[in-house]
Amino acid sequence: MSALSFSPHLHININRNPKLTPKRRAKPNKIRVSLQTTFPQATFSDPFVIQLAESLEDSLPSSSSSLPQPLPLQKLRDSSSQTLLSTPWPSRKDEPFRFTDTSMIKSSQIQPITRPSSSLDVSTDAQFPSLVLIDGFIQNSALNLSNLPDGVYVGSLLGVSDGIMKRVSDFISEFQCGDLFWSINGMGAPDLGVIYVPAGCKVENPIYLKYLSVEGGNVDSKKLPISNPRVVVLVEEGGEVGIIEEFVGKEGNDCYWANSVLEVVIGKGGKVRHSYLQNQSLNAAHIKWTAVRQETASGYELVEVSTGGKLSRHNVHVQQLGPDTETELSSFHLLVSDQTQDLHSRLLLDHPRGYCRQLHKCIVAHSLGQAVFDGNVKVNRYAQQTDAGQLTRSLLLEPRATVNVKPNLQIIADDVKCSHGAAISDLEESQLFYFQARGIDLETARKALVFSFGAEVIERFPYPSIRNQVVSHVKNLMGTTDVSFS
Amino acid sequence: MAAFLPSNPSTSCCSFKFSNLPSKSHVFTLPALPLLCRRSNYHRHHLSLNRVTAALSAVDSPLKSSSDGQDEKSQPLLQVTGLTAVIAESKQEILKGVNLLVNEGEVHAIMGKNGSGKSTLSKVLVGHPDYEVTEGSVVFKGENLLEMEPEERSLAGLFMSFQSPVEIPGVNNIDFLHMAYNARRRKLGQPEIGPIEFYAYLYPKLERLSMKTDFLNRNVNEGFSGGERKRNEILQLAVLGADLAILDEIDSGLDVDALRDVAKAVNGLLTPKNSLLMITHYRRLLEFIKPTFIHIMEDGRIIKTGDASIATVLEEGGYKAISGS
Ligand SMILES: Nc1ncnc2c1ncn2[C@@H]1O[C@H](COP(=O)(O)OP(=O)(O)OP(=O)(O)O)[C@@H](O)[C@H]1O
Ligand SMILES: [Mg+2]
């Protein structure tokens, strides 16, 4: 349906020279675009997508500079543009988007951001080595990389050694399960952030990735600047690292679209602790991919707290590539305004003695708020003696607040320990009463209990400073700053 | 001297005095009550009506053992009259006309078979939403308790330790205590205190209960053992204070040392002004905290009231020895 509807708002110069690579891209697409045809073409090209792809290509720094792009980026763009040719804009009829309406993006004037915003003073948490991406562009001036062990690299792909370049090349664009937004990012990412941890290296301090959206329109303008930040984390055998991703807008409630991708590759016995904070503007679209490949006996832990965005979607894809591998995903989504928060996760266990735990919690505190959770855990035939658990709990605090949850544990192996559950609840009356019985009024009790619902996830952030930051942010949103629980 | 007080509602002191009053709490007029009860010492009044039970005939009147000549000053603190209550959901009646008077400075104990309604009575008194009061009245410190919200009852000085306290995941124990303590201070018109000041206030109380400090940083009751939960309830009582503390089976699940700690803490909180209502199955607690009166509850009523010796009778002869009357 929406694949056919051509949006007149799209801010694209159709008459420009077609540059979209590769050349084998068929002319018919072009013709369809210019004709704005209405015949069925969902399995072929979607003119809206093609136009978007072209405008992204035009916006890339490479199109104006004569420097050759590093091979991995080129590879990524080629494969992405190829995919975009045959990927329509998702509609509500497509299962992965059944509950998630992306028309807010589609009906806006999408504008690729062509250059990094100049001379912006970005403060980062000075205690951690950090990498700042402004509208998807890596700010070299804001790198704070003191105290990193030898051999660890944090920065733009343009600065990596040949060795690392080769490793990145091995993995880039190998991932086959992405969707349209994955490919849009691959097409539009102006650079690639790289975090490389050599074999056996345990990085003590977590690496802080700050994604800042600076360009933005106001709600009435319909302008929607798009940024495509992309980072790859490569941890070699036995390496360990923590990463903290934080997504924020500039002050205010700007409209923008952050379309971000993080790829994580964890070598044998390696470990990655991933903290993810999404505090975007309440008028922003935030689409995020986290794709993780875990070798034998490796560990991956994700702790997510998402509160921002008018439309926010986190796609998590984790694949265990060897036995004795551990994965833990914990997410807390808080909706305090007219917004959609979506978590689509997929965990693939193909090998013996895997372990995975997933906890999803959400609070919908606005009558027009909608939370979506589609969590698929697939335990395949060879994944014997797997221990898998999945739990989702939602708290609806307003009469028409909506939640669509689809926890889904698919088990093909037979020797498997599994638990799963889903609950949509109100606050526990017995707990509320316990507060009252100690002289605490109902309103305060409710706030404390609502907060505690999310605290179960917040407590899992491995770093006290992040925990405290999130606690005060969440309390702020819930209007519980007056409550004296420290 | 007689020791047993028949608590048949029709003859029990206050209800017979008020037998013509409307039984709904809402229409109860308060001022008359304290006067009446203060003047005529109702327990004494009843001794004359008592049937003497041979086994206990040597025991002193409960009044003598408790009041030590303070009778004239002792004011009613809690006055429960003809209280009936149902389970809100099913409308099943659990309390079937409870009468109880607790004066200032008195220690009472309620005993009774499992399921007789002891916990229900205490929960109804603190305003638990699982129950609805259908008849009767409850006056606490001269005010109609049944019209107060649960938190107002607490702030008015009524404390109940739960038989099975709930876990509250995600809420820190010390934060919870701090919130409750500051709510109390607000009520008293005192400025709220910060976390450090509060910790200084809290620490000695924690020590007195032999509780480890790491309890404070755990979530309220989460993963606490049975005994730890009970101690935590008493810690809350110690922090908040109360004019009337209702302790529902505070002794069950406690080891000997813990029982001594808890009893010491509770005794330390007793003053000539405040009172205690303990629910228990065992005499052991009553040896640590000496009750003035023991009430026996059966099928939603208090069927007998007597002095501490009732516990001995119970322990030796079981409830048969009492309800057989
Ligand atoms: N919320 C409730 N829902 C259903 N039944 C209830 C509820 N509360 C109390 N009851 C029933 O009322 C009766 C009295 O219960 P209560 O807990 O007051 O007994 P108790 O005297 O405290 O017993 P125990 O000595 O075992 O603690 C029991 O039969 C109990 O099952
Ligand atoms: Mg009980």
TrEMBL record, chain A:
InterPro entries: Fe-S_cluster_assembly_SufBD, SUF_FeS_clus_asmbl_SufBD_core, SUF_FeS_clus_asmbl_SufBD_sf, SUF_FeS_clus_asmbl_SufD, SufBD_N. It comes from the Eukaryota. Residues 61-93 are annotated as: Disordered. Residues 225-453 form the SUF system FeS cluster assembly SufBD core domain. Coiled coil: none annotated. Residues 73-208 form the SUF system FeS cluster assembly SufBD N-terminal domain. This is Fe-S cluster assembly protein SufD. One of its GO terms (cellular component) is iron-sulfur cluster assembly complex.
UniProtKB/TrEMBL annotation, chain B:
InterPro entries: AAA+_ATPase, ABC_transporter-like_ATP-bd, ABC_transporter-like_CS, FeS-cluster_ATPase_SufC, P-loop_NTPase. GO terms for molecular function: ATP binding; ATP hydrolysis activity. Keywords: ATP-binding, Nucleotide-binding. Signal peptide: none annotated. GO terms for cellular component: chloroplast; iron-sulfur cluster assembly complex. Pfam families: ABC_tran. CDD domains: ABC_FeS_Assembly. SUPFAM superfamilies: P-loop containing nucleoside triphosphate hydrolases. It comes from the Eukaryota. GO terms for biological process: iron-sulfur cluster assembly. Residues 78-324 form the ABC transporter domain. This is ABC transporter domain-containing protein. It comes from Citrus sinensis (Sweet orange).
